[in-house]
Specification:
The radius of gyration is 23 Å and the shape is globular. Strand 1 and strand 2 form a beta hairpin. The longest helix is centred in the first third of the chain and has 32 residues. A two-stranded antiparallel sheet has the order 1-2. The chain starts with 11 loop residues before the first helix and ends with a helix. With 285 residues, it is mostly helical. The protein is 73% helix and 2% strand.
Length: 285
């Protein structure tokens, strides 16, 4: 045969498309490396032990971000602890239990609409509802609840699409041997969809860490360290992004780039830990 599988002719258009695919990948990686490299170049000079381990003191004329680092970790952990189970549960219901129809389509449309709302509107709502109506004031908890609403659509939609990729044979096979639906979801469906769920969590961490507009209205800009574990939750707490914005506003660009570098490192560490935990869960499953 002239055009058999072993002797298939390579068309010029295939080579052109392959070139643009590799070029796109190189551009994406190059942009990422360029941004991280520039931030590291501008910010590395501001990094010191005092910068990382102290709080800002106007009396002593020192600048430190340890309080902002702690506030950022508080907001990441609390927001994910609230949003992750709710988001995964909603995705499981929509995919495995709800019957396809107008109600499901309405919920999906609402979720997609929520994902596109500007963050500053979430901040206004969080300040009015959580801060004023629920009397939480300007506090870390108020900011966490606001960010929970922000990242829920992302977790729900990403988890839902991940659940849909699990082959139908897994479901019919498990149910065919007598497994209950919840047992099938818990032991087969969720572990199979775990990479997509982890992706949703990582994307949520990225949005939480990078948020500033909503937190200005809800969490405030406090930079002091908590006296004990839960004493800080109902008090004002500015994250690293809030502090970076304030330093940029004052023209302290070196300190702002130093904070940006710390933010990048924190995100990389969280992503690496998430991957390690996911791999361990896959091995033990």
């Amino acid at each position: 045969m002239k055009n058999s599988i072993c002797q298939k002719q390579i068309r010029i258009s295939d080579n052109i498309l392959r070139f643009f695919i590799y070029l796109s990948a190189l551009i994406s990686v190059g942009i990422l490396i360029g941004i991280i490299g520039y931030v590291a170049f501008r910010g590395i000079g501001s990094i010191s032990w005092q910068f990382l381990s102290t709080v800002t003191s106007e009396l002593n004329g020192t600048f430190g971000i340890i309080g902002n680092i702690v506030n950022t970790l508080y907001i990441i952990i609390i927001s994910l602890l609230i949003a992750t189970p709710i988001g995964i549960g909603a995705a499981v219901y929509l995919t495995e239990y709800a019957k396809p129809g107008k109600v499901v389509r309405l919920i999906e449309f609402t979720t997609e609409t929520l994902a596109g709302i500007p963050s500053i509107i979430y901040g206004l709502f969080g300040m009015a509802f959580f801060g004023i109506s629920l009397k939480l004031g300007t506090s870390i908890l108020c900011g966490c609840l606001t960010l929970t609403i922000m990242v829920l659509p992302l977790i729900i939609r990403t988890t839902q699409e991940s659940l849909k990729t699990v082959p139908l044979g897994y479901r019919t096979g498990a149910l065919g041997i007598g497994a209950t639906k919840w047992y099938m979801i818990r032991t087969i469906i969720l572990p199979s969809a775990l990479p997509g769920i982890v992706t949703a969590v990582i994307l949520s961490v990225g949005r939480i860490v990078g948020e500033s507009a909503a937190l200005l209205f809800t969490a405030g800009s406090g930079y002091y360290l908590p006296k004990h574990l839960f004493s800080h939750v109902l008090k004002s707490g500015g994250t690293l992004t809030i502090e970076m914005y304030l330093r940029m506003e004052r023209g302290e660009f070196d300190n702002a780039f130093g904070i940006a570098l710390v933010l990048v490192v924190i995100v990389l560490i969280i992503n690496a830990l998430t991957k390690v935990i996911t791999n361990n869960m896959k091995k033990s499953a």
